[in-house]
Amino acid sequence: MKKEQRLEAEKFLLQQIYDENPDFVDATMAAFSVSRSTVYNYINTLQDNGELERVGGSMPYRVLYKTSRFTIDTTREHSEDRMFSRDISPLLAELPINVQKIWRYAFTAMMNNALEHAKASAIVCVVNRSRLCTIIGILDNGIGIFRRIQQDQRDASGEAPTAAEAASLLYAGGYTSDPDTHAGEGIFFTSRLMDHFAIRSDYQLFTPNAEDADEEGGERFRGTAVQMALNNDSKRELSEVMAKYIDPDEGFVHTEIPVARFFGGDFPISRSEARRLLSVLEDFRTAELDFSDIDEVGRDFAHELFSAAAGQYPMLRLSVKNATPAVLGALRRAGYSGE
């Protein structure tokens, strides 16, 4: 077998193990027409290379990562682009250009948040790399992103939102505690560029992905922890993701909301919940509401959502996806006319 084919087979094998396929040996044999002994030769090579570890049990191997760690002294370093070029870019040099571009955007956007909003004295960046994917974590010892939003909201309105409500303000994009110098788009776009994206602070979790929300809870994290993961062979293009939400003339005017995540996993029933949802959409022209994992909605919520949108936000157009027949029926009775 040629070297390129062997590398492809090894990567396939790693993916099967990462996906916890108990038939990883047979799957690799079938996919590449090789013998069982050949597959175990691949396994031995991957173990020797530090890419695979034997752990025993029903899934006897696990994929290993090469870890690099950097500590940033915020009193001395202020340029996230220099950090990326110096510390991160060399680690990603073998990845496709489109993936490198995405990581440059994501790292600099999240590091800028930590530098300019967190009021942190130290920031730790951890890069975990395997042949399959790259995971980057940015952890700071600052005030905590949701606590910061709560403080800003209390200063602006006199009423502090809960931590969950503070997290919900980030789903549409465009929220910032410093509107004079920041557009508030970094978290939104980074979360759409990544395969997995989560922010944890105190006990609160922000993630647009339902599968990542399964990790909610756990111990308190003081400060803010951002975790980003992207497949090394991702076909995603930075420009294409941006173009989905940005109008060439009007800017960031299209957004989407994972409704279940916005409301912390609860089904929305009240008019106040509808008003809270609409309040984050007032600067947009179109918004797609994803009703995945929601089995029902309240009549008051549905009526307020579409009557208020028509009356108070005449330029806003709402669309719906992944709604059950029951939810779609409730929305249509409230005035929704889409598919």
Could you describe the 3D structure shown?
The strands form 4 sheets. This protein has a 6-stranded antiparallel β-sheet with strand order 3-4-5-8-6-7. Helix 1 (3-18) packs antiparallel against helix 2 (24-32) and helix 4 packs across helix 5 (97-117). It has 3 domains: 3-63, Arc Repressor Mutant, subunit A, CATH 1.10.10; 66-231, Histidine kinase-like ATPase, C-terminal domain (Heat Shock Protein 90), CATH 3.30.565; 253-333, Transcription Regulator spoIIAA (2-Layer Sandwich), CATH 3.30.750. It is built from 14 helices and 13 strands. 42% of the residues lie in helices and 21% in strands. The chain has helices at 3-18, 24-32, 36-48, 80-88, 97-117, 145-157, 163-168, 186-193, 210-213, 238-245, 259-262, 271-279, 299-312, 325-333; strands spanning 52-54, 61-63, 66-73, 122-129, 133-140, 196-202, 204-206, 221-231, 246-247, 251-252, 254-258, 286-290, 317-321. It starts with a helix and ends in a 6-residue tail after the last helix. With 339 residues, the protein is an alpha+beta fold.
